[in-house]
Amino acid sequence: MSAPDWIAADWGSAHLRVWGLSGDQVIRHASSDQGMGQLAREGFEPALLALVGDWLPEGQVTPVVVCGMAGSRQGWVEAPFRALPCAPLGGPLVQATCRDLRLAVHVVPGLKQVKPADVICGEETRIAGFLVRNPGWDGVICLPGTHSKWVHVSAGEVVSCQSFLTGEMFSLLSKSSVLRHSVAGWADEGFAEGVAQGMERPERLMARLFSIRAEGLLEGRDPAFARARLSGLMIGAELAAAKPYWLGQRVAVIGAEPLVQHYAQALGTFSVPVTRHDATEMTLAGLATARALLPQTKRPCVN
Amino acid sequence: MSAPDWIAADWGSAHLRVWGLSGDQVIRHASSDQGMGQLAREGFEPALLALVGDWLPEGQVTPVVVCGMAGSRQGWVEAPFRALPCAPLGGPLVQATCRDLRLAVHVVPGLKQVKPADVICGEETRIAGFLVRNPGWDGVICLPGTHSKWVHVSAGEVVSCQSFLTGEMFSLLSKSSVLRHSVAGWADEGFAEGVAQGMERPERLMARLFSIRAEGLLEGRDPAFARARLSGLMIGAELAAAKPYWLGQRVAVIGAEPLVQHYAQALGTFSVPVTRHDATEMTLAGLATARALLPQTKRPCVN
After folding, report:
1. CB spacing of A172 vs B176 below 8 angstroms
2. Which residue range is the domain that position B147 belongs to?
3. What is the DSSP letter of B12?
């Protein structure tokens, strides 16, 4: 198998995912749970080499373009946030120090909104990829995940953003709270009921959450219904708070399944026109765009 | 030191606390982290004996009156919930099986509300203790803790209740979520700001939570301010949802410091008349009342 021209990497809090590309063709793929959350600064290069070391030809520098939390303060190298409003990608990428001379690692900077304070770290690349695929697109993008993001895009720039702790909270509640005794599996009816309740009375969230436990104890409620309802309550409450973003707008939802489908279903309840887009595809398109920002040099030979 | 006449026990999810009493006088006290959450059914008796074994005279049965999660489905013995409206204590206590003949363990049943589904398990005893100390009291009782409870009491009965996951969520967020990087300590101004924001726009909770992280990153916000603001946001959102309970009412807050003080301060913002009461004192008064429900037998001699 031929060596990749370059390597694309999405380095989040919990996972590292890498793709080896020849032009825009993916020829290798690997991933690990060596997310930024588990690593000290000196751990990043070994974690990357563990996945791509075998892909790198000797006597040659392979560029690696990285998006995500690896560019945060606790990451490999701090890539200072760029301030909104701005294009999702722009300015120089930030080079991380490598011992292995076969690597040249470039990190994509995240975005910041000064007031109300908010940050985007990784999603800017998916947004850029989406705009490459949909030139001239104006509207609202929703990026569900650990920390879901809503962004307003106009004339190729991210104008405003709003993040929610929804995904992380769902994970903590369903795995580490008292609710873990009551939730397992998935039943669509539970999700629909949760969305309706969360949307209608979002301020009651903390009480509704306890009701999942109480219904489990008193009514022996189906754990699949309960888990989907928990998800629905939280997404419904998020939609209630994000209403200024989606009301009267078209929304592009970018993420992984089944989460994208859940958000699309919830938004569909309110007749919002929604399109669904795969996060990996957008990430790769965005990283390819970021790579084009690198100075155009011939790949040097290191002897 | 003389042997206690009886033993009072508060057995929650996370802790076991026991008091040896002579009449209504506490002569011994001990506690451990052997909460119901860590124990299988056969682990309860050893966990209790580890604390009180030395207090028990031979050839004599010492009654132990227990409130809390030890009486739940995953506890020592399931004490079926009594349905609201009802007095906080009543009906027979439920006896748990003991191998050690020096022990007779009696568990106080919790309370249930059928619709909306809710349960109380341990707090009924504190409520009973409060009513013994304040006979004829009508109004609203707030019991902050892992799962904070609001109850409406009238004519000696608990009429309705509403539980919130506030305390457990605060613990998860401040210790196990991304916010743990941004919060430490306590600053009163942060609490006041959080309560005001949580109360004013409770539906924005999940977005405000992420802003704690973003402010930490972008503004280097003081972690003591941030942690108090996190607590304030959550308590403020709880108060917004619990408004039907406290509006136009007097509220007795029963719990441990500093939480009781925080709730009293937050309620004070809305000019609610509040009194503060120590949870341990109310628990002991309630368990003494529960003990009086036991059949009046002479303490038998086991030979």
Report:
1. yes
2. 6-161+281-291
3. -
